[in-house]
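Narrative of accomplishments. A recurring question from our advisory board has been how the design workflow behaves on a single, concrete structure rather than in aggregate. To address it, we present the structure tokens for one chain from the evaluation set, followed by the sequence designed for it. No filtering or post-editing was applied between the two.
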């Protein structure tokens, strides 16, 4: 089962995007931007706090605070059938969230290594505001 899931993830991501480890495709900021451009159905899951999100986030991102006591339930309500790109500020919280995404049997998971810090360092755009924040 794990091997089949890993193979499916690699096929969806493509051999030129990211690195497959433990059933998750790890991507750089540049690879994440390419992924989102090519696959608009991928949900960007920002697991930072609302204030962090409001300070700047990837356009279209859905914010669910990893530290919320309802984090798992909130994520379970999302339609992640198109895959999910998860990130936080630097990668610590989103790395922890990977276990929950796997437990929820999300089929296609991408992790933005280095988080929003890496995204910004790569010169990629963020937007401000909270219109898509959930917590």
């Amino acid at each position: 089962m794990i091997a089949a899931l890993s193979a499916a993830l690699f096929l969806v991501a493509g051999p030129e995007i990211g690195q497959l480890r433990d059933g998750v495709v790890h991507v750089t900021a540049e690879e994440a931007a390419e992924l989102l451009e090519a696959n608009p159905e991928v949900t960007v899951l920002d697991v930072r706090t609302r204030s962090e999100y409001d300070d700047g986030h990837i356009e279209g991102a859905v914010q669910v605070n990893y530290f919320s006591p309802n984090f798992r339930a909130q994520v379970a309500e999302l339609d992640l059938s198109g895959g999910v790109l998860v990130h936080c500020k630097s990668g610590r919280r989103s790395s922890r969230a990977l276990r929950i995404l796997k437990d929820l049997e999300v089929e296609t998971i991408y992790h933005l290594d280095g988080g929003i810090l890496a995204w910004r360092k790569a010169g990629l755009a963020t937007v401000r505001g909270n219109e898509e924040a959930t917590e």
